[in-house]
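Example 3.
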Amino acid sequence: MNLTSPTQVKSWCIENGFHPNRTLGQNFLIDRNALNAIVDGAGVRSGMKVLEIGPGLGVLTEAMLSRGAAVTAVEKDRRLAERLFDALGTPVGLDVVESDALKLDWDEFLGRGFDLCVSNLPYSVGMRILLDIALHPAAPAASTVLVQREVAERLAAAPGGAERGQAGVWLQLDNEVRILRQVSAACFWPRPEVGSSVVRFNRRRCALTAPQRGWFFDLTRYAFMHRRKQIGGSLRKAEGPLQRDAAEIDAILAEAGIDPAARAEQISNECWQKLASLYAGSRA
Ligand code: SAM
Protein backbone atom coordinates (compact mmCIF):
# COMPACT_ATOMS: atom_id res chain seq x y z
CA MET A 1 0.00 0.00 0.00
CA ASN A 2 1.17 3.51 -0.76
CA LEU A 3 0.80 5.15 2.65
CA THR A 4 0.79 8.67 1.27
CA SER A 5 -2.15 7.91 -1.02
CA PRO A 6 -5.33 9.07 0.73
CA THR A 7 -7.39 6.77 -1.52
CA GLN A 8 -5.37 3.69 -0.61
CA VAL A 9 -5.29 4.50 3.10
CA LYS A 10 -9.07 5.06 3.17
CA SER A 11 -9.70 1.85 1.17
CA TRP A 12 -7.55 -0.16 3.57
CA CYS A 13 -9.54 1.19 6.53
CA ILE A 14 -12.88 0.39 4.88
CA GLU A 15 -11.81 -3.11 3.77
CA ASN A 16 -10.53 -3.91 7.24
CA GLY A 17 -13.35 -2.30 9.23
CA PHE A 18 -10.84 0.05 10.83
CA HIS A 19 -12.21 3.36 12.10
CA PRO A 20 -9.47 5.85 13.09
CA ASN A 21 -9.79 6.51 16.80
CA ARG A 22 -9.95 10.19 17.80
CA THR A 23 -9.02 9.50 21.41
CA LEU A 24 -5.82 7.84 20.22
CA GLY A 25 -5.12 10.81 17.93
CA GLN A 26 -5.19 8.64 14.82
CA ASN A 27 -4.68 11.27 12.14
CA PHE A 28 -2.47 9.58 9.58
CA LEU A 29 0.09 11.54 7.60
CA ILE A 30 -0.76 11.24 3.91
CA ASP A 31 1.51 13.81 2.29
CA ARG A 32 4.79 12.77 0.68
CA ASN A 33 6.43 16.21 0.79
CA ALA A 34 5.72 16.61 4.49
CA LEU A 35 6.93 13.07 5.12
CA ASN A 36 10.24 13.69 3.35
CA ALA A 37 10.68 17.01 5.15
CA ILE A 38 10.27 15.33 8.55
CA VAL A 39 12.68 12.48 7.83
CA ASP A 40 15.20 14.93 6.30
CA GLY A 41 14.77 17.40 9.17
CA ALA A 42 15.29 14.62 11.69
CA GLY A 43 18.56 13.65 9.98
CA VAL A 44 17.69 9.93 9.72
CA ARG A 45 20.65 8.06 8.26
CA SER A 46 21.71 4.49 7.64
CA GLY A 47 22.74 2.60 10.77
CA MET A 48 20.94 4.89 13.21
CA LYS A 49 18.70 3.51 15.97
CA VAL A 50 15.43 5.42 15.95
CA LEU A 51 12.58 5.40 18.46
CA GLU A 52 9.12 6.06 17.05
CA ILE A 53 6.05 6.53 19.22
CA GLY A 54 2.76 5.78 17.46
CA PRO A 55 3.74 4.32 14.07
CA GLY A 56 0.08 3.95 13.06
CA LEU A 57 -0.04 2.48 9.55
CA GLY A 58 3.74 2.91 9.28
CA VAL A 59 4.25 5.85 6.93
CA LEU A 60 7.20 7.32 8.88
CA THR A 61 8.45 3.88 9.91
CA GLU A 62 8.67 2.75 6.30
CA ALA A 63 10.47 5.93 5.20
CA MET A 64 13.04 5.61 7.98
CA LEU A 65 13.63 1.90 7.32
CA SER A 66 14.14 2.67 3.64
CA ARG A 67 16.98 5.02 4.66
CA GLY A 68 18.68 2.14 6.46
CA ALA A 69 17.75 3.07 10.02
CA ALA A 70 16.68 0.50 12.62
CA VAL A 71 13.31 1.50 14.08
CA THR A 72 11.74 0.57 17.40
CA ALA A 73 8.07 1.48 17.07
CA VAL A 74 5.80 1.69 20.12
CA GLU A 75 2.09 1.45 19.26
CA LYS A 76 -0.80 1.31 21.73
CA ASP A 77 -3.48 0.17 19.27
CA ARG A 78 -3.26 -3.62 19.13
CA ARG A 79 -4.69 -3.89 15.62
CA LEU A 80 -2.11 -1.48 14.22
CA ALA A 81 0.76 -3.01 16.19
CA GLU A 82 -0.13 -6.54 15.07
CA ARG A 83 -0.23 -5.73 11.38
CA LEU A 84 2.78 -3.40 11.13
CA PHE A 85 5.65 -5.87 10.80
CA ASP A 86 4.00 -7.93 8.04
CA ALA A 87 2.49 -4.89 6.34
CA LEU A 88 5.94 -3.36 5.89
CA GLY A 89 7.34 -6.64 4.44
CA THR A 90 8.95 -8.10 7.62
CA PRO A 91 11.92 -5.70 7.56
CA VAL A 92 15.06 -6.75 9.47
CA GLY A 93 15.50 -3.38 11.19
CA LEU A 94 11.99 -3.12 12.66
CA ASP A 95 11.02 -3.91 16.25
CA VAL A 96 7.34 -3.35 17.03
CA VAL A 97 6.43 -2.92 20.69
CA GLU A 98 2.72 -3.07 21.46
CA SER A 99 2.50 -0.80 24.47
CA ASP A 100 1.10 2.41 25.90
CA ALA A 101 3.97 4.90 25.77
CA LEU A 102 2.60 6.54 28.93
CA LYS A 103 3.31 3.34 30.83
CA LEU A 104 6.77 2.52 29.51
CA ASP A 105 9.68 2.09 31.87
CA TRP A 106 11.77 4.84 30.30
CA ASP A 107 14.91 3.97 32.27
CA GLU A 108 14.93 0.53 30.72
CA PHE A 109 13.63 1.63 27.35
CA LEU A 110 15.84 4.65 26.69
CA GLY A 111 18.73 2.69 28.19
CA ARG A 112 18.68 0.73 24.90
CA GLY A 113 20.42 3.76 23.41
CA PHE A 114 18.54 5.50 20.60
CA ASP A 115 20.22 8.02 18.32
CA LEU A 116 16.97 9.77 17.47
CA CYS A 117 13.30 9.92 18.35
CA VAL A 118 11.11 10.67 15.33
CA SER A 119 7.33 10.63 15.78
CA ASN A 120 4.02 12.02 14.70
CA LEU A 121 2.70 12.20 18.24
CA PRO A 122 -0.94 11.60 19.23
CA TYR A 123 -2.50 14.98 20.08
CA SER A 124 -3.93 14.36 23.51
CA VAL A 125 -0.90 12.75 25.16
CA GLY A 126 1.90 13.97 22.89
CA MET A 127 3.20 16.59 25.32
CA ARG A 128 3.43 14.11 28.20
CA ILE A 129 5.28 11.58 26.05
CA LEU A 130 7.65 14.28 24.82
CA LEU A 131 8.44 15.44 28.35
CA ASP A 132 9.06 11.84 29.45
CA ILE A 133 11.54 11.33 26.62
CA ALA A 134 13.25 14.69 26.23
CA LEU A 135 13.80 15.31 29.97
CA HIS A 136 15.21 11.84 30.57
CA PRO A 137 18.99 11.64 31.15
CA ALA A 138 19.23 8.93 28.48
CA ALA A 139 17.20 10.88 25.88
CA PRO A 140 18.33 10.54 22.26
CA ALA A 141 20.67 13.28 20.96
CA ALA A 142 17.79 14.72 18.94
CA SER A 143 14.01 14.31 18.82
CA THR A 144 11.95 15.47 15.85
CA VAL A 145 8.22 15.37 16.34
CA LEU A 146 5.01 16.50 14.74
CA VAL A 147 2.72 18.23 17.23
CA GLN A 148 -0.21 20.64 17.02
CA ARG A 149 0.97 24.06 15.89
CA GLU A 150 -0.08 25.78 19.09
CA VAL A 151 1.83 23.20 21.17
CA ALA A 152 4.94 23.70 19.00
CA GLU A 153 4.76 27.46 19.55
CA ARG A 154 4.53 26.97 23.29
CA LEU A 155 7.51 24.63 23.35
CA ALA A 156 9.74 26.91 21.28
CA ALA A 157 8.56 30.19 22.88
CA ALA A 158 11.16 32.76 23.86
CA PRO A 159 10.67 34.74 27.10
CA GLY A 160 8.01 37.44 26.92
CA GLY A 161 4.87 36.13 25.27
CA ALA A 162 1.82 34.49 26.80
CA GLU A 163 2.56 31.26 24.90
CA ARG A 164 5.62 30.67 27.08
CA GLY A 165 4.83 28.09 29.74
CA GLN A 166 6.32 25.56 32.07
CA ALA A 167 6.74 22.76 29.50
CA GLY A 168 8.69 25.01 27.12
CA VAL A 169 10.95 26.26 29.91
CA TRP A 170 11.60 22.68 31.05
CA LEU A 171 12.33 21.34 27.58
CA GLN A 172 14.60 24.28 26.78
CA LEU A 173 16.72 23.42 29.82
CA ASP A 174 18.27 20.42 28.05
CA ASN A 175 17.43 21.18 24.44
CA GLU A 176 17.74 23.74 21.72
CA VAL A 177 14.16 23.83 20.39
CA ARG A 178 13.47 24.77 16.77
CA ILE A 179 10.29 24.73 14.68
CA LEU A 180 11.36 23.29 11.31
CA ARG A 181 8.19 23.72 9.32
CA GLN A 182 4.42 23.94 9.39
CA VAL A 183 2.31 21.03 8.15
CA SER A 184 -1.22 21.85 7.02
CA ALA A 185 -4.22 19.95 8.41
CA ALA A 186 -4.85 18.78 4.81
CA CYS A 187 -1.75 16.58 5.05
CA PHE A 188 -3.53 14.21 7.46
CA TRP A 189 -6.43 11.82 7.22
CA PRO A 190 -8.82 12.10 8.94
CA ARG A 191 -8.26 15.83 8.69
CA PRO A 192 -7.69 17.33 12.17
CA GLU A 193 -9.14 20.68 13.17
CA VAL A 194 -5.76 22.39 13.39
CA GLY A 195 -2.45 22.29 11.57
CA SER A 196 0.76 20.82 12.96
CA SER A 197 4.41 21.79 13.12
CA VAL A 198 7.60 19.78 12.96
CA VAL A 199 9.72 20.59 16.00
CA ARG A 200 13.29 19.51 16.53
CA PHE A 201 14.87 19.19 19.99
CA ASN A 202 18.67 19.10 19.93
CA ARG A 203 19.99 17.92 23.22
CA ARG A 204 22.59 20.14 24.86
CA ARG A 205 24.60 19.84 28.03
CA CYS A 206 22.90 21.28 31.07
CA ALA A 207 25.31 23.00 33.44
CA LEU A 208 23.16 22.44 36.55
CA THR A 209 24.00 19.80 39.14
CA ALA A 210 21.28 17.28 40.10
CA PRO A 211 20.19 19.27 43.21
CA GLN A 212 20.18 22.52 41.21
CA ARG A 213 17.97 20.84 38.59
CA GLY A 214 15.57 19.92 41.39
CA TRP A 215 15.37 23.59 42.39
CA PHE A 216 14.93 24.62 38.75
CA PHE A 217 11.87 22.36 38.40
CA ASP A 218 10.43 23.34 41.80
CA LEU A 219 10.86 27.08 41.23
CA THR A 220 9.47 27.10 37.70
CA ARG A 221 6.55 24.82 38.63
CA TYR A 222 5.69 27.16 41.50
CA ALA A 223 6.10 30.34 39.44
CA PHE A 224 3.99 29.09 36.52
CA MET A 225 1.27 27.98 38.95
CA HIS A 226 1.08 31.67 39.91
CA ARG A 227 1.88 33.05 36.48
CA ARG A 228 -0.30 36.14 36.83
CA LYS A 229 1.68 37.23 39.90
CA GLN A 230 4.98 39.09 39.93
CA ILE A 231 7.84 36.76 40.80
CA GLY A 232 9.02 38.79 43.80
CA GLY A 233 5.57 38.82 45.39
CA SER A 234 4.83 35.18 44.68
CA LEU A 235 8.18 33.97 46.09
CA ARG A 236 7.52 35.94 49.28
CA LYS A 237 4.30 33.95 49.76
CA ALA A 238 6.00 30.60 49.14
CA GLU A 239 5.92 28.00 51.89
CA GLY A 240 7.97 24.90 52.58
CA PRO A 241 11.40 24.50 50.99
CA LEU A 242 10.91 27.58 48.76
CA GLN A 243 10.30 29.85 51.75
CA ARG A 244 12.90 32.61 52.29
CA ASP A 245 12.70 35.97 54.04
CA ALA A 246 11.94 39.04 51.93
CA ALA A 247 15.45 40.51 52.10
CA GLU A 248 17.00 37.25 50.94
CA ILE A 249 14.52 36.95 48.06
CA ASP A 250 15.35 40.50 46.94
CA ALA A 251 19.08 39.75 47.08
CA ILE A 252 18.76 36.43 45.21
CA LEU A 253 16.56 37.94 42.48
CA ALA A 254 19.01 40.81 42.05
CA GLU A 255 21.94 38.41 41.76
CA ALA A 256 20.04 36.27 39.25
CA GLY A 257 19.33 39.39 37.19
CA ILE A 258 15.55 39.03 37.60
CA ASP A 259 13.25 42.04 38.01
CA PRO A 260 11.01 41.30 41.02
CA ALA A 261 8.10 42.73 39.00
CA ALA A 262 8.61 40.19 36.17
CA ARG A 263 6.07 37.43 35.58
CA ALA A 264 7.11 33.81 35.06
CA GLU A 265 6.85 33.90 31.26
CA GLN A 266 9.17 36.93 31.03
CA ILE A 267 12.11 35.23 32.71
CA SER A 268 14.80 33.65 30.52
CA ASN A 269 16.11 30.12 31.04
CA GLU A 270 19.53 31.53 31.95
CA CYS A 271 17.94 33.54 34.76
CA TRP A 272 15.89 30.55 35.97
CA GLN A 273 19.07 28.49 36.08
CA LYS A 274 20.89 31.17 38.02
CA LEU A 275 17.95 31.46 40.44
CA ALA A 276 17.95 27.66 40.92
CA SER A 277 21.66 27.58 41.72
CA LEU A 278 21.27 30.45 44.21
CA TYR A 279 18.34 28.73 45.96
CA ALA A 280 20.36 25.49 46.03
CA GLY A 281 23.18 27.32 47.79
CA SER A 282 21.02 29.19 50.30
CA ARG A 283 19.42 28.02 53.54
CA ALA A 284 15.68 27.39 53.76
N1 SAM B 1 2.89 7.69 12.64
C1 SAM B 1 1.59 7.60 12.02
C2 SAM B 1 1.47 8.65 10.95
O1 SAM B 1 2.29 9.59 10.97
O2 SAM B 1 0.56 8.56 10.13
C3 SAM B 1 0.44 7.72 13.02
C4 SAM B 1 0.48 8.98 13.84
S1 SAM B 1 -1.02 9.26 14.75
C5 SAM B 1 -0.97 11.03 14.89
C6 SAM B 1 -0.62 8.80 16.42
C7 SAM B 1 -0.39 7.31 16.65
O3 SAM B 1 -0.07 7.11 18.06
C8 SAM B 1 -1.56 6.40 16.38
O4 SAM B 1 -1.13 5.28 15.66
C9 SAM B 1 -2.06 5.97 17.77
O5 SAM B 1 -2.68 4.71 17.77
C10 SAM B 1 -0.77 5.98 18.55
N2 SAM B 1 -0.92 6.21 20.00
C11 SAM B 1 -1.85 6.96 20.63
N3 SAM B 1 -1.65 6.98 21.95
C12 SAM B 1 -0.55 6.21 22.16
C13 SAM B 1 0.16 5.83 23.34
N4 SAM B 1 -0.23 6.26 24.55
N5 SAM B 1 1.23 5.02 23.20
C14 SAM B 1 1.64 4.59 21.97
N6 SAM B 1 0.99 4.92 20.84
C15 SAM B 1 -0.08 5.72 20.93
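The longest strand covers residues 175-183. The pocket of S-adenosylmethionine is lined by residues 24-29, 53-57, 59-60, 74-77, 80, 100-102, 120, 122, 125 (CB under 6 Å).
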